[in-house]
Batch of 2 targets.
Target 1
Amino acid sequence: MKLYTRHQLIFASIISGGIVCIAMLAAFKINAVSAKSHSAGTAQGSDTAVSTALTQTPSDTPVQDAYKVASPSAAYTPEEIQNISVYEKCNEAVVNINTQVTGINWFLEPVVQDGGSGSGSIIDNKGYVITNVHVIDNATKIYISLSDGTQYEGKVVGQDSESDIAILKFTPPAGTVLKTIPFGDSKALKVGQKVIAIGNPFGLDRTMTTGIVSGLGRPIQNSNNTIIRNMIQTDTAINPGNSGGPLLDTSGRMIGINTMIYSSSGNSAGVGFAVPAETAQRVASDLIQYGKVNRGVIQASLVQLNSSIADYARLDIAAGVLVSETEKGGNAERAGIKAGTQAVRYGTRSPQIIYLGGDIITGIDSIKVASLADYFSALESKRPGDTVSVTVHRGRRDIQIKLQLAEKTDN
């Protein structure tokens, strides 16, 4: 075994320690450089990701441009831009309608009271406004308020309870240019199509709501017990005060007149109905031109059939419209429709004479007639001179009779 002196051992320890220190310093330097490189690369990647997520700029766009503030128009979605466009185009043509009615006070004296309120649309530069009949029911005074705050007294040009459409008119100062809403094509509507309503729910002027067409061709009975056919069903929020206002397509055309809602509370429940523009436009044209709607009629006195009459007359059906009398020389008599011959007193409070034994109308064209409401609804769109196919029940069998409609007279 080899022996070492004290000085040799000290010298060897110093040399070994130095080698270890040098090795540790070298390793530390390598790790530091590696960490720095990794950190720089991560930071650069993170900045690029944030820039891309915020701005989605093309690769050739300078980095400093990626953080520029977007223009105001870019802050809206295409759907929002569409909504804004329709509102700005149409809201000034929507009016607020308030009425006054005559009531009786405690001393049985007539007094003027606040009536109802609703909406309407200006459809002509002369000041014609379309709304619902029930908006102006029993009104002695009608006030029409425009978007600029001006208010005018309106007068009734004509009203048609069978379609719940009324036309009002106000007279603006000379030189006033009115915003109007054009009619659209309600026959081209599709379920799922977006629609927009503007009105005055709860007196909140020109409120806008959006939704879709939920259904088409709905026969709905209104408050006058008249069935309005081909109503547009929508989930657009319609509340008290929206009645008479426009239902619009995304181009700002009026495709319906908001008329009623189905709700247990009286407020919007997602089921609203509008009179289609096809009906509203036809009715409005007649009301403006004639003050009434020119519909074709069957010249006969009719009674709604019920179980009491059916039992008494021993009929085999209990639904339809009984022909009590026909006008002498009228279209019903000429077509061969049979009137009743057996006179009976009908009714309790105000009994009237009706005649049993005549034909029972059960259909007009393709529309089933089970009541007077159905009968008037079936003729709602018919003109004098139109030929219709009338289904009558006679002697326990159905007969088809062709009949040319006549013009309605005061009688």
Note: Residues 296-407 form a domain with the Pdz3 Domain fold (CATH 2.30.42.10).
Target 2
Amino acid sequence: MSKIALTPNASGNGVFTITAPNSGTNRAIALPDAAGTIPLLAAASNTAITSTPAELNILDGVTSTAAELNILDGVTSTAAEINLIDGGTARGTTAVADGDGFLTNDGGTMRMTKVETLATYIGTKITGGSMVFIASSGVVSNVATVAFTGFNASAFDHYVFMLQHVKPVADNVLLLCQTSTDGGSNFATSSGDYHASAAVDQIGLIVSDELGNASGEFGVSGRFEIYAPHVASAFTYGLSMGPFMNDNVEIKNNTAFAQSASMRLSAEDTDAVRFLFGSGNITSGEIVMYGIANA
């Protein structure tokens, strides 16, 4: 039978008191089969320590202060979320949209920043004369007009619209571009608001000569440019460079028909445009808007 020996210290003069709890239940405490010092708790507690010695030994050698460890106090991240910064090479394909955020090191301080802030910053680094994507109509299907409002005089001097097989519902109709000075709420639509090189009075800038709509015709592709629309003291010029079909045999171009140049016959600040046919809807195609960065 093992024995328990209490050995007093001959040099001490205090009283070592062991106090039993007020309990009506028999309790058993097993001492470890090892030599060493048993640490004491700073305050009385009935909470059992459930960690194993091996788990507690993980902290052996940790030099963090209590304040440093308390940084984790209140952290609500999941293990999966924390593991995103583990340096792995796995990358997802989640689409990025306005309002999304990303983690950045701001001079040693980690911060969350919105993608709009990143877009603005990148915009300031674009060199003058660069062509920058602004917006796309997406695939068009039987719509009356396609409007663009992404004009920004502080960022762009001119604008380029790339057309891909834009085709009318009606036959033999002009593709036009009308301008706005109030962000697209209203557009100039009267005959004589615009002048073209071949036919003087028009209801819009000339984007393409008359297009056909037969099954063997594929509309107009190419580029339409608008120059300095923000200059309120001068007319806004338009220039079209697009091959097109107005019958199902022959390919043509605006320049040959003297329909490549046109202008808005009013000195004003243009901040939106819309594309439409002289009559009928746009049955198919796509239009993409780019800005030419300020020089």
Note: Residues 131-293 form one domain.
